[in-house]
Amino acid sequence: xxxxxxxxxxxxxxxxxxxxxxxxxxxxxxxxxxxxxxxxxxxxxxxxxxxxxxxxxxxxxxxxxxxxxxxxxxxxxxxxxxxxxxxxxxxxxxxxxxxxxxxxxxxxxxxxxxxxxxxxxxxxxxxxxxxxxxxxxxxxxxxxxxxxxxxxxxxxxxxxxxx
Length: 163
What we know:
This protein has helices at about 15-25, 30-45, 95-110, 125-135, and strands at about 5, 10-15, 55-60, 65-75, 80-85, 115-120, 140-145, 150-155. By secondary structure, the chain is α+β, with helices and mostly antiparallel strands. An 8-stranded mixed sheet has the order 1-2-3-4-5-6-8-7. α1 (about 15-25) runs antiparallel to α2 (about 30-45).
């Protein structure tokens, strides 16, 4: 099984069975739809499923404790992947998301053909925007469907912003 590790987290992609379970358990219609689209991406492109599935964020010192998840929203032909993420209730404010985003983005940018990682945040979600800035992203100055867009490229891989 593929996995990434950071200081406090183990990050790993879930299989189709786990993704179906997430769809079945999800109450939020928008997330349910997103998970359904992820599963479709996994089944339509089994060799590239890593770019569609959910990745769990598990605490190293508490096996089985999932603090949140993230996913890539496919991979474009121009080498861009988009990142989406969220924390479970009770785990905000501990730096877990920044740690996970840094590890995920470093891994993604090390993959053949990936030149940039982008993310959008709700305009009022300053906590998410801080996560992106701390993980080395820069604001693009554009607004997408979900809000302001941020990008991290091969050129700014080593840059980190710690406001």
